[in-house]
Write a structure and sequence with these properties.
single chain, globular, 2 helices, binds N-[(3-hydroxypyridin-2-yl)carbonyl]glycine, Jelly Rolls, binds fe (iii) ion, four-stranded antiparallel β-sheet
């Protein structure tokens, strides 16, 4: 379910919170198990954070870059994620992890499933801020041809239930500047990881 513009009025506060998170846990281009740096830079907040390295994909309670716990999830983030999930039919969502992705023009994310979480009955809530992206919404098999869904500043997506494991990705970001973020798209994804 796409909740168009649901985070629009919170966006400047969200960006300020992202800056606070990045001051404690800097954005970093993580390395995939295949040995390549990801084109989106990432950080996390909350009890758990999503990481990747030569050993694989997983959640961890500490930031490998700093050796410290991830910064706490801001109240504003958690409230937004819980309210959006409830509106989409998931009243019990209590996220313990928020992955923050930062894209610049040309950055992308190849088709993947989100399957590193403990409980697939829990949904994922995704918040887009800044430059627009074309989200690739695929099917249950990697080979299914994805639909192209524009995700704009302030859009919130909730997905779960039978769609929880669909393949998805982000088309290479186009050039542009956004009044709030400059030449950047942020995406927050909230999960119940543990
Ligand atoms: C992005 N999002 O929008 C990447 N995954 O930048 C994801 O990979 C994603 O938006 C699971 C659920 C929602 C998402
Ligand atoms: Fe994903």
């Amino acid at each position: 379910m796409v909740l168009r513009g649901r985070a629009h009025d919170l966006a400047s506060e969200l960006v300020a919170d992202i800056a606070g998170i990045a001051a404690a846990a800097p954005f970093h281009h993580q390395i995939t198990p295949g040995g390549k740096p990801m084109s989106a830079a990432m950080t996390n907040c909350g009890a758990l954070g999503w990481i990747t390295d030569a050993r694989g994909y997983r959640y961890a309670g500490t930031d490998p870059q700093t050796g410290r716990s991830w910064p706490p999830m801001p109240t504003l983030f958690e409230g937004l994620a819980r309210d959006a999930a409830a509106e989409a039919g998931f009243p019990d969502f209590r996220p313990d992890a928020c992955l923050v992705n930062r894209y610049v023009p040309g950055a992308r994310m190849s088709l993947h499933q989100d399957r590193d979480e403990a409980d697939f009955t829990q949904p994922i809530v995704s918040v887009s801020i800044g430059l627009p992206a074309i989200f690739l919404w695929g099917g249950q098999a990697r080979a299914d041809r994805p639909r192209r869904v524009p995700l704009l500043h302030g859009d919130v997506v909730v997905w779960g239930g039978p769609d929880r494991l669909v393949f998805h990705g982000v088309h290479p970001l186009g050039e542009g500047t956004h009044p709030l973020t400059g030449a950047v798209r942020y995406n927050l994804t909230f999960r119940r990881a543990g």
